[in-house]
Design goal:
Low-confidence stretches of chain A: 200-244
Helix content of chain B: 25-40%
Radius of gyration of chain B: 18 Å
Order of helices and strands of chain B: EEEHEEEEHHHEHEHEEH
Number of strands of chain B: 11
CATH class of the largest domain in chain A: Mainly Alpha
Mean pLDDT of chain A: 75
CATH architecture of the domain at 1-71 and 149-155 and 184-250 in chain B: 3-Layer(aba) Sandwich
Distance between the termini of chain A: 44 Å
Largest interface: A-B, 26 and 31 residues
Oligomer: heterodimer
Strand content of chain A: under 5%
Distance between the termini of chain B: 32 Å
Strand order of the largest sheet of chain A: 1-2
Number of helices of chain A: 18
Shape of chain A: globular
CATH superfamily of the domain at 1-71 and 149-155 and 184-250 in chain B: P-loop containing nucleotide triphosphate hydrolases
Structural class of chain A: mainly alpha
Shape of chain B: globular
Number of helices of chain B: 7
CATH class of the domain at 1-71 and 149-155 and 184-250 in chain B: Alpha Beta
Mean pLDDT of chain B: 89
Strand content of chain B: 15-25%
CATH superfamily of the largest domain in chain A: MetI-like
Largest sheet of chain A: 2 strands, antiparallel
Chain lengths: 522, 250
């Protein structure tokens, strides 16, 4: 929670800097877009190199865990805050300028309240991701050394290793109560935020020119949800003041803030790059030869993992298309189903999966035989990630113009025709965003599932081949170089995939499949 | 088409209609008028069975209508098109459930687009069209479904005055074209001039819960001019019905 709060506060500062400085905006958005499209798990070697190796000690371990959790929760919240600041109605900004509001008053009275619905909307996936990585990263083993930091991940790991089932169950119940409580609070906050902070006037919005990079569908999805979205295509130029030196000097000051924030962000980025380069320089030639010789095997493992990710994603989509549709179209089912899935998704899979494993493994062995472990890993991956595409699809249907529903009913369309001609195209921007997140998080599920020693009842869960298994095993054996190299290859391929495929789909979604553009009103 | 003894209340318990009885004869253009918030659009949705009445029934050719059907087609107040489909594909959407071969669908879509004056614009996407053209597409989509009844909810409300005037002049001929399957049209509007210009029958809704407080038959040749004294007289009658208090005084 501390990290989420921290990321929100930093996000406001960055978002304000981004709307005030074009240079900072371009750098900032480019970095966020890359980071949010790369699976969090690919940050693991950087975490090991910088925090555990360079910083070291309990502080390094704490920072490593914090960094992983931070990377899990920050990007989508930051993007939401930036989008909110970017789409604030120009009239609101003009009022603050009219009354000569200070930066503090502008933030407190206009920018921050306006950003609250977006932040709350992004809290659900952030909390789910945060818990997942808390349970994964608070205890990890490198070679013979086990690193741990204080948090719920520590007792879970300790009780599981000692076979202390009673304490383990108590910890899970406590965690469950906390998760339900947290989700209830976030839901309440969501209702409050929508009731209090959303605006429904059709007012022009500020658009100070797009960032130079192409925008993501997450952007279009959120903009298209906004009632202002349909007006986003026309730019209203704010009239400049006649004289007002003071305003000019304030604008200068604001741009200075942007420059300072930009320089700070750049410095952190350069430090990270420097640390990585220094580490790479310290690797010997023989080590490099070894790593290159392992590359074909690593790539084969990546291919196998991609197939697993595709299966998990297809299962998640099938789940979303059936249950998501059912819940979005039946009010009573929705009232029960959505909070239930929200709670399940926020409860960290690594915490409860050993119990599921104990329950289902004998049956899976009986059904799948030698493929049993594969089936278990796929199921684990599904549990870790299905809710992204489910939520996106569900939200897409909820945001669909009500007139579309009436037309589908009017034309007496069946389920498949509705899906094919109206619902899937209408929800396409949401789906792409959800599928992208599902794919990214599926890797997290594979990392824990492909090699899980002593998962439960003395069994070790492990697959025949897979890059995530190699990374996990190498880390545990202390072969950081191989783990780092595998993660590096993985990050490169995933980033290329993201640029070539995900972004193209996002562009297509933004260009063609914005349902709100189908409703014309003046 | 008719509704009889219709009562309806919202989920929050608010009673919107009480004992609504409306009958629209074959070949007639009927309109429903009433003050803002009286429930005109809601009544149209009851006609289309998008909403279920608390009491009473909706009848087409004397048979009850229990759920939405392509035989009763709706044109929305907000102009609804699908941005990922061309004009022709938008129209063909209403033929998807009929099981026609593609060539026949294209032929019907083409005919419907011709009917609304959009020949030559088949391949444009909605965002490449003006509001008036988009509304013509949505009318063409409704007509392509070969409905018996067309429900129109303030169909000109989101058009600028000049475009609306042009479309109003065309709409009667489009709808009652010899090639059209339509038997009647029911339109909701708050624009009294528009209603007198287009309608054969006008039903006036008022009170709380709303009931039909007046019924007017318009007997004027088409095209009708709003400068005609007879036109003015009808407008006055409508105005009187709308402003008459319960109990008989104005």
């Amino acid at each position: 929670m501390g990290l989420i709060l921290l990321s929100i506060v930093i996000g406001w500062a960055f978002a304000y800097s981004a709307i005030k400085s074009r240079i900072f905006e371009n750098i900032y958005i480019s970095i966020i877009e890359v980071f949010e499209s790369v699976p969090i798990i690919s940050f693991f070697p950087i975490v090991l190199i910088i925090f555990v190796d360079r910083v070291g000690g309990p502080l390094g371990v704490e920072l490593a865990a914090d960094f992983l959790v931070f990377t899990a929760v920050a990007w989508n919240i930051w993007m939401g805050q930036y989008q909110a600041f970017k789409t604030i109605p120009s009239e609101m900004v003009e009022v603050t300028e009219n009354y000569n509001f200070s930066l503090w008053h502008k933030m407190r009275d206009v920018y921050i309240p306006f950003s609250i619905p977006r932040i709350v909307a992004n809290l659900f996936p952030s909390i789910s991701d945060g818990f997942f990585y808390i349970t994964v990263s608070e205890v990890f083993t490198v070679g013979v050394t086990s690193y741990s930091t204080f948090g719920v991940g520590l007792p879970i790991d300790k009780f599981a290793k000692n076979g202390n089932l009673n304490f383990l169950v108590i910890t899970f119940i406590a965690l469950g109560i906390f998760v339900v409580f947290l989700i209830a609070i976030v839901r309440e906050m969501g209702n409050h935020a929508v009731a209090k902070y959303t605006i429904d006037t059709e007012a022009p919005i500020i658009k100070r020119g797009k960032p130079r990079i192409r925008q993501t569908s997450r952007f279009s999805a959120i903009v298209s949800q906004n009632t202002l979205g349909k007006l986003a295509s026309y730019n209203r130029v704010r009239k400049g003041p006649e004289d007002l030196e003071e305003l000019f000097s304030r604008e200068k000051k604001n741009s200075k803030i942007g420059i300072i924030a930009g320089v700070l962000a750049l410095a952190i980025f350069v430090y990270i790059i420097y640390s990585v380069v220094m580490f790479v320089m310290s690797v010997s030639h023989s080590e490099w030869s070894y790593l290159f010789s392992q590359t074909p095997a690593l790539l084969y493992g990546l291919l196998i993992d991609y197939i697993r990710v595709i299966i998990i994603t297809l299962a998640s989509i099938a789940f979303a298309f059936t249950l998501g549709y059912l819940l979005a179209t039946r009010r009573r089912a929705e009232a029960v189903g959505v909070p239930l899935i929200q709670t399940i998704s926020a409860y960290p899979v690594p915490a409860y999966f050993p119990f599921i494993f104990l329950g289902i493994y004998p049956f899976i062995i009986a059904i799948l035989g030698p493929l049993a472990e594969e089936g278990v890993v796929l199921f684990l991956g599904f549990l870790a990630t299905f809710y992204y595409v489910f939520y996106s699809f569900w939200m897409g249907i909820k945001a669909m113009p009500s007139e579309y529903n009436e037309i589908m009913n009017n034309l007496d369309m069946g389920f498949f025709k509705k899906m094919r001609y109206v619902i899937i195209p209408s929800t396409f921007p949401y789906l792409i965003s959800g599928i992208s997140s599902t794919i990214n998080s599926a890797w997290g599920g594979l990392v824990i599932g492909e090699y899980w020693p002593d998962i439960a009842g003395g069994e070790t869960l492990q697959v025949h081949a897979g890059l995530m298994k190699t990374i996990d095993v190498s880390t545990r054996n202390g072969n950081i170089a191989l783990a780092g190299w595998g993660s590096f290859l993985f990050a490169i391929i995933v980033a290329v995939y993201s640029i070539l495929f995900t972004r193209k789909m996002m562009d297509l979604a933004r260009k063609k499949y914005v349902a709100e553009e189908g409703i014309y009103s003046v | 088409m008719e509704v009889s003894g219709l009562d309806f209340r919202y989920d929050n318990g608010y009673k919107v209609f009480e004992n609504i009885n409306i009958k629209v004869e074959r070949g007639k253009f009927a309109s429903i008028v009433g003050p803002s918030g009286v429930g005109k659009s809601t009544l149209l949705r009851l006609f289309g069975s998008f909403l279920k009445p608390e009491h009473g029934e909706v009848l087409l050719h004397g048979k009850p209508v229990l759920r939405p059907t392509p035989l009763i087609s709706m044109v929305h107040q907000s102009i609804v098109t699908f941005p990922w489909m061309t004009a022709e594909e938008n129209v063909m959407l209403s033929l998807k459930t009929k099981g026609y071969p593609r060539a026949k669908c294209e032929e019907i879509a083409q005919k419907s687009l011709d009917m609304v004056g959009l020949q030559g614009f088949e391949n444009l996407y909605p965002k490449e069209m003006s509001g008036g053209m988009r509304q013509r597409v949505s009318v063409a989509r409704s007509l392509a479904a070969e409905p018996k009844v067309l429900l129109m909810d303030e169909p000109f409300a989101h058009l600028d005055e000049l475009t609306a005037e042009g479309l109003r002049q065309d709409i009667y001929n489009i709808l009652f074209n010899p090639e059209s399957s339509l038997e009647c049209v029911i339109m909701v509007s708050h624009n009294l001039t528009e209603v007198v210009e287009l309608s054969d029958q006008i039903f006036v809704l008022n009170n709380n819960p709303a009931t039909v407080v007046g019924h007017l038959e318009i007997d004027m040749k088409r095209p009708r001019s709003s400068r005609d004294p007879v036109f003015d007289n009808y407008l006055d009658q409508l105005y009187a019905m709308l402003t008459k208090k319960k109990g008989g005084t104005r």
